[in-house]
Amino acid sequence: AQRVTQPEKLLSVFKGAPVELKCNYSYSGSPELFWYVQYSRQRLQLLLRHISRESIKGFTADLNKGETSFHLKKPFAQEEDSAMYYCALRGYFGNEKLTFGTGTRLTIIP
Amino acid sequence: GAVVSQHPSWVICKSGTSVKIECRSLDFQATTMFWYRQFPKQSLMLMATSNEGSKATYEQGVEKDKFLINHASLTLSTLTVTSAHPEDSSFYICSASPSGTDTQYFGPGTRLTVL
C-alpha cells in the first residue's frame, strides 16, 4: 500500500526565513512524487514533480529514497507563499492514481 | 490552457434525493478523469477513476451503486450521488489528464450539503 505522511498540519515562518515542508512516503517500488499547492480560494495546482528536477517559484524538492522523503524547500519565504501544500505519490505500475498527504498549511509572517 | 470546470460549485439537497456533479475539461480532451472526496481538514481521497467509453474503476470501500460515474465524452465526466444522506456531505473534486499525458489538472470542487 502506498502512503504519504506530512507531519506538520500548520507551519508559520517569517518572511525571508527558510522554509521546509516535510513529506515522507511508503511505497514498495519506485514512486513518482509531487507537490501540489492550493492558494486561498483557488483550485489545487501542481507545484513540482521530482522527475522534472526543476525549481518552481523558488521551491525545490529532492527525492531521498534512503529516507523515503520528498521535503519541499525554499531558502527565502515570501508572503505569497502562504497556502496549503500537499505532497502526493504515484506508483510506477501504469497506474495514474495519486495518493495525497494530509497537507500542511504554510503561513508566512510579514 | 488545461482548465477543468465543475458544476455546480455548491449544492444543497434533501436526504434521499440524487445529485449530479459535472466535470468538464474546457480546452483539452481527457481520456481519464478522477473523482476525489475531501472532508474538512483532511486530505483528498480518490474515489474512482473515470475512463471515457468504459466503466469507472472504484477504490476500495467506495460504493459503485451510490456514486455513479459516467464518462460519455472526452470532455465530460459526471458523478451522481444517489439517495444522498447527510454523511455524503463533503467537497467533491475532479481532475483530468490530457490524453497522452499524465499531469492531472484539478477542478475547483463542488461542495455538497445533504440536509
Please describe what this structure looks like:
The complex is a heterodimer of chains A (110) and B (115). With 110 residues, chain A is mainly beta. Chain A contains no helices and eleven strands. Chain A is globular. Chain B has 115 residues and is mainly β. Chain B is built from no helices and eleven strands. Chain B has strands at residues 4-7, 10-13, 19-25, 30-38, 44-51, 57-58, 67-73, 76-81, 90-98, 105-106, 110-114. In chain B, strands 2, 4, 5, 6, 9, 10 and 11 form a seven-stranded mixed sheet that branches. Chain B has a four-stranded antiparallel sheet with strand order 1-3-8-7, with no helix packed on it. In chain B, a hairpin with a 5-residue loop joins strand 5 and strand 6. The radius of gyration of chain B is 13 Å and the shape is globular. The model of chain B has no long low-confidence stretch (mean pLDDT 92). The A-B interface holds A 9, 42-46, 86, 90, 96-103 and B 4, 32, 34, 41-46, 49, 93, 95, 97, 102-109.
**General form of chain A:** globular
Major beta-sheet overview of chain A: 6 strands, mixed
Please compute the radius of gyration of chain B using only Cα atoms: 13 Å
Helix fraction bin of chain A: under 10%
**First-last Cα distance of chain A:** 41 Å
Question: What would you report as the Rg of chain A, rounded to the nearest angstrom?
Answer: 13 Å
Structural class of chain A: mainly beta
Largest interface (CB < 8 Å)? A-B, 16 and 21 residues
What is the quaternary state of this protein? heterodimer
Percentage of β-strand residues of chain B: over 45%
- Total beta strands of chain A: 11
